[in-house]
């Protein structure tokens, strides 16, 4: 018999046929002359109950010795279950032990804290919560690809090792093959990488944007979807040192077209995930965040509010709310401000547009007022900023000026500037933090619990 997942088995149109299940035991209950095995194979939230009795081959030698965590294979007949909340169960004719479990298996049947589960990231995918998160990550990834493929964006693989600081914020991890202890500093403090692997200083990328622009100025519309790295020392519940980013980039787009794209994109991805992960989302709604599904529906059904930064700041200044961080024209929005605006003030997603140039990256299109740039942040309740993007500065002289004004060296961006010399066109793009949307969908409080292998300051064990 070929392979069948528990998900497949539970979806059979009728009971009565033979079946084989393979998976790990969540719980085992031994009664007189009968044992109940709750087998889970990760294919869905539900496990399958396997019922064994003395007629079952392996009853005494295997079944009666089983405990939580064992890996088993069970053969039998799929029958309708009298039990509540399960459609079918398997009446086993044979049970085999595939992998025994050693003393001290840490995942016993009780609620473990997420902090504890982070210390056993190699085993935590076997819990309901983390298993569901991994399935939602999978569904959301496919939904993202589907959306862009339908919109005629080409998937472009941008480099992970790079020489350019795409955000100009100096938060990059150095990549080197020089042995530790080699003094790479020149007298002026800059890095001497002439002996290094690439013959120049290289880093892990903070964003694929600059290379995505190369793609957009040839294929018109591209997107990236890959890992990005930030060496910012933010020990917060919404920052990771390694996270996945989705970055569409489109030629002949202005900020308004970009905001439209972002809105269509989020609506489409959320609708797909709700559709494909019904059981997993029901779990998060019941156990983690009672508004999880409702607020996803808000994103899907309600039009996004668009507010210029100046206006958003004016609202915050006059709202009378006590914030930890100051508000005022020219200041950046902090997470608490973002959340107040979207949760308390408008009750739907917000696109904040036209930010002060002084607090945004060098590549953003300078508006006619000379003070603001055509940038946007999309804010959602619960997590705040989920998307950051902008129309790009496509005028050579203005871009060169902005690079210099931020203390960066135009020579380091020579090829980026070349794109403005040869057939430059207005274009725009954004970046979506993948873990942030998974956080929003699931309601998980800490971003480290929606990444399978979180990297954060002081933490890279698994
Ligand atoms: O706003 P950011 O820094 O924008 C960029 O990197 C642009 N180059 C994107 C572009 O226009 N192509 O990052 C984009 C998004 C944020 O809105 C946030 O969702 C997420 O990436 N993000 C993080 N997620 C987890 N941990 C971090 N340390 C993050 N920093 C940013
Ligand atoms: Mg941002």
Descriptive account of the structure:
α5 crosses α7. A hairpin with a 3-residue loop joins β14 (372-380) and β15. Helix content is 28%, strand content 24%. The two termini are 36 Å apart. An eight-stranded mixed sheet has the order 6-10-11-16-15-14-13-12, sandwiched between helices. The protein has helices spanning 6-10, 114-118, 128-150, 209-219, 255-276, 278-287, 292-301, 309-317, 335-346, 396-405, 414-418, 434-442; strands at residues 18-31, 34-40, 48-52, 71-80, 88-99, 154-155, 161-162, 174-175, 202-204, 221-229, 242-251, 305-308, 350-356, 372-380, 384-391, 427-433. The protein is built from twelve helices and 16 strands. Bound molecules: 4-amino-1,4-dioxobutan-2-aminium adenosine-5'-monophosphate and magnesium ion. Magnesium ion binds at residues 377, 385, 388.
Give the low-confidence spans: none
Oligomer kind: single chain
Ligand catalogue: 4-amino-1,4-dioxobutan-2-aminium adenosine-5'-monophosphate, magnesium ion
- Number of distinct helices: 12
- Radius of gyration from the alpha-carbon trace, in angstroms: 26 Å
From the helix content, strand content and strand pairing, which structural class follows? Answer: alpha+beta
Strand order of the largest sheet: 6-10-11-16-15-14-13-12
**Helix content percent band:** 25-40%
Secondary-structure element order, as H and E?
Answer: HEEEEEHHEEEEHEEHHHEHHEEEHHEH
Let me know the largest β-sheet.
Answer: 8 strands, mixed
For the secondary structure, the number of strands is 16
Mean pLDDT: 96
First-last Cα distance: 36 Å
Proportion of strand residues: 15-25%
